[in-house]
Write a structure and sequence with these properties.
- With 168 residues, the protein is α+β, with helices and mostly antiparallel strands.
- The protein folds into two domains: 12-49; 51-164, no CATH class.
- The protein is 33% helix and 40% strand.
- The chain contains two helices and eight strands, in the order H-H-E-E-E-E-E-E-E-E.
- A five-stranded antiparallel β-sheet has the order 1-2-3-4-5. Strands 6-7-8 form a three-stranded antiparallel β-sheet, with helices on one face.
Length: 168
Amino acid sequence: MTHRRHSRSGLTLIELMVTMLLCSILLISLSIIMLESQRGWRRAYNQIHGGQASDAMVAKTTFEIIVRKATRLQYQIDAPDDMRVFYYSDWFNAPQLDRYSRFYCQDGSLYVEHGQLGNMNSPSTVLLATDVSQAVFRAWPGALQMILTINNSPKPLTVAATAVMHNQ
């Protein structure tokens, strides 16, 4: 009698179960990584596109635009969170300073008030940022600086803007 050996190709049940277990562990690990990256992306998106970041950008841009056209010869910092700058409505033709802008903090909001000198009864006031916990204005030689802290989320956002006053 001759015995023939049958070559068995294929996987045993144990090998198949071990392979499935390893694949399951790998898939669970990948899904945890994907879930955490999704949470991080959502957190970053909300920070960037939330009110805090847009308020800070609007305040910074407005401050820089107004201060750049202001005169270096006259400005007032009445309090750490209250500042006035003066400028010409028409830089080429105005014989004297005739406009002003006032940045100030009131009830946790940052405002800018625009008006004509001599007619301060009808200013135009614009809300720049809400949930402001601190606004500090400083003067440097030929420049003004604003440091603004907005706190409407677990992590406060601080933005600093420095602009050079270009007019005499």
